[in-house]
User: What shape does this take?
Amino acid sequence: MQAAYLQTFPAQLTLIHEGDPADFLYVVVEGKVELFANSNGREATMAVVRPFGTFILAAVLKDAVYLMSARTTERAKLLLVPSEDIRKAFEKDDAFARAIVVELASCYRGVVKDQKDIKLRTSVERLANRLIRYDKDQGNSGLLELPYDKRTLASLLGMTPENLSRAFNTLKPYGVEVEGSKVRLTDMKSLLTLAKPNHLIDERTT
Amino acid sequence: MQAAYLQTFPAQLTLIHEGDPADFLYVVVEGKVELFANSNGREATMAVVRPFGTFILAAVLKDAVYLMSARTTERAKLLLVPSEDIRKAFEKDDAFARAIVVELASCYRGVVKDQKDIKLRTSVERLANRLIRYDKDQGNSGLLELPYDKRTLASLLGMTPENLSRAFNTLKPYGVEVEGSKVRLTDMKSLLTLAKPNHLIDERTT
DNA sequence: TGCATGGATTGATTTACATCAAGACTACGA
DNA sequence: TCGTAGTCTTGATGTAAATCAATCCATGCA
Assistant: This one.
């Protein structure tokens, strides 16, 4: 940790580009970081990392290039640990190595769940389940705040901003009221009937 | 390894169901195993494991339930290692723990690449790139054999069998000739132009 | 106060893909 | 040799979502 940097970055700053060698492991201490990928002139958001998540762990361990690019969505405080140090600690410190494995296994299962989400659900179902998840995260009050702007949310859910807008309209009859970044869920029962949440997709802890 | 079972299974046998606790780690010794998932009455193939790949490693390490189901696509010989033993070895044997991490990191990067493939490409592009990959795996001869039946390939590529058929027709002008499970690539240059392969998606080793 | 800017929404249209419904081909067994 | 079942293919149609285009905001700023 001696050689690690704690640094603050402004919003919308690209931190790393896919294809670059993995020089640092990043830990989000404050703010949010969007992971995204490009190909063929197209772009897709892959994930958003919040405190205190890490990103680019697998690339660091394999001493490989990054598979995703990363940019801040808002002002963010990040810890940068030289990947050389991570690999050394990994060799020397058994407890560290095992802790790494648990983190990595969790990330892995997260991606698998994301893939099931995309392959097995329509975009409206994905949005419905996402809203239910955010509500749960924020205390089951039925009143939730979207954690990032709609453009980012749309890409994360694998749709265009236009379609997200329409998807919200589709959910109106199921008690979903949107006002800016605030969302009210007034008929959870019927929303659940539509969304059919599945703990093997939506549960993030296990 | 003392308690591991080496067993032969017939084709089309479901080995595990998603949601079940992870009792065994599986290693494919011979044949192929399809990993798939269900939700909402829909089904999707997530991956196909060949010798000598493992599956369900993350679930075993986390002592969690399986996220995917698995079935043999053909007669297969599998090694079943009790997950309890894996976790014990993981605790005691440092070299084993580190080897596990490398395998896990590779699997993780594989899923990320699959996700980029789905999010950034059309189905025809996915098929084109897949054919190029199989050709490379089989020695760049321009003559390749599809490793599983078209139904499975279709689901793996995220499309219906009907659409796979049509996608092959779309690729005909680009020198793709199909006959049963054999495919000839007679105009690699124009196929590459269409497919635009990207080593951050298609390269499987790094 | 007025005007630029970028996000969000809405409507019209196009495209990609799924679904439905027949056929065609293949392999296999009685 | 003829069913018969399974896989694959083809065509017609339907649906989900992308794209294109216009407008409607909010916000910041001179």
Q: What stands out?
A: Chain A has eight helices and eleven strands. The longest helix of chain A spans residues 94-120. Chain A touches chain B through 50 residues (CB under 8 Å).
